Amino acid sequence: MLDTPKWEVEPPLYSSDSFSSPLNSKNYAQCYFQLVTIPTDFYAPYCFNDSDEVQLTILGLNTLQRLEKENHTLQLAEESLRISKESAKYGKFAAWLAGIGILTTIVIAIFTFIFS
Description:
Layout (H helix, E strand, L loop, with lengths): L5 E2 L8 H4 L5 H5 L3 E3 L7 E2 L9 E3 L1 H57 L2
Parallel strand pairs: 1-3
Antiparallel strand pairs: 2-4
């Protein structure tokens, strides 16, 4: 989350929490959500309330759009696969009918040759 609460008591200098400062630009690059309004009691450790609202950051919106495009591409690929399987089924049926037609033509030619 983009909004990092202030500490009521500062963490020890070498703790992992002191390295993830809100001023650290690397933290902003990985944030997908941010609070719509920052509560007045926004101190760590913060427990979210039902009234807290979050929204997507620019990175979150971009990621959502990329995932929606990937999902759409996946749906198109699945539809294409379904249609190609159906086409293969009809192609196999057409090959059988062509074989029966050739066999029928040969049989008619043989009977015409024998009985003429």
